[in-house]
Design a protein that fits this description.
The complex is a heterodimer of chains A (114) and B (117). In chain A, 0% of the residues lie in helices and 49% in strands. In chain A, the strands form three sheets. In chain A, strands 2, 5, 6, 10, 11 and 12 form a six-stranded mixed β-sheet that branches. A four-stranded antiparallel β-sheet of chain A has the order 3-9-8-7, with no helix packed on it. Chain A contains no helices and twelve strands. Chain A is globular. Chain A has 114 residues and is mostly beta strands. Chain B is globular. Chain B starts with a strand and ends with a strand. The chains are: A mainly beta (114), B mainly beta (117). At the A-B interface, β5, β6, β10 and β11 of A face β5 and β10 of B.
């Protein structure tokens, strides 16, 4: 079945450091890929998305490129801030097929220190 | 309302009791989803509705869990005869259109933290 695998956290970085959170997926067909972010005490928010191979999603300085050849969707940011501290979830959907639901990874906690 | 609203925010119940968790989606949103999130895990799909019709309940763990959305707006997730393993964060999400389309993302509520003692 479809699944998402994320690197385990926590990831602890100093402010202005470069961030990579790895995400790989297993899916039949052509899923859409997402990154969601959960700030402390809040619900999940969509951070960025990509719908087909080689698409790059971007938002708030974060980027992720849909790589079909490596089945990956790694999240990157060039210079993190303390306010980026949150849990990040990679997710996929089958884009309207039979399942019609989001499948999430286990989440990666990012802690940015000043 | 401004966002998806869930109540109660926290619920502590004794094993064997029934609980009802409420979700009030964003006004006008067609689809409504229920997810369960255990500590340290990602959200796990339970069920979803388009309008009042339950489209997929394959994620409900067993027949103690049920959900309804009788008027196509507010939804209730009911857990009967709760067990300790039911303890988790229960999250509701809604979307403007039917199905999971990248141009119509899911909007999540803050969740209900259920603790079964």
């Amino acid at each position: 079945g479809n699944s998402v695998t994320q690197m385990e956290g926590p990831v602890t970085l100093s402010e202005e450091a470069f961030l990579t959170i790895n995400c790989t997926y297993t899916a039949t067909g052509y899923p859409s890929l997402f990154w969601y972010v959960q700030y402390p005490g809040e619900g999940l928010q969509l951070l960025l998305k990509a719908t087909k191979a080689d698409d790059k999603g971007s938002n708030k300085g974060f980027e992720a490129t849909y790589r079909k050849e490596t089945t990956s969707f790694h999240l990157e940011k060039g210079s993190v801030q303390v306010s980026d501290s949150a849990v990040y979830f990679c997710a996929l959907s089958d884009g309207g097929g039979a399942t019609n639901k989001l499948i999430f990874g286990t989440g990666t906690l990012l802690a940015v220190q000043p | 309302g401004a966002g998806v609203s869930q109540s109660p925010r926290y619920k502590v119940t004794k094993r064997g009791q029934d609980v009802a968790l409420r979700c009030d989606p964003i006004s006008g949103h067609v689809s409504l989803y229920w997810y369960r999130q255990a500590l340290g895990q990602g959200p796990e799909f339970l069920t979803y509705f388009n309008y009042e019709a339950q489209q997929d309940k394959s994620g409900l763990p067993n027949d103690r869990f049920s959900a309804e959305r009788p008027e196509g707006s507010i939804s209730t997730l009911t857990i009967q005869r709760t067990e300790q393993r039911d303890s988790a964060m229960y999250r509701c999400a809604s979307s403007l259109v039917m199905g999971l389309r990248p141009d119509s993302p899911l909007h999540f509520g803050n969740g209900t933290r259920l603790t079964v003692t």
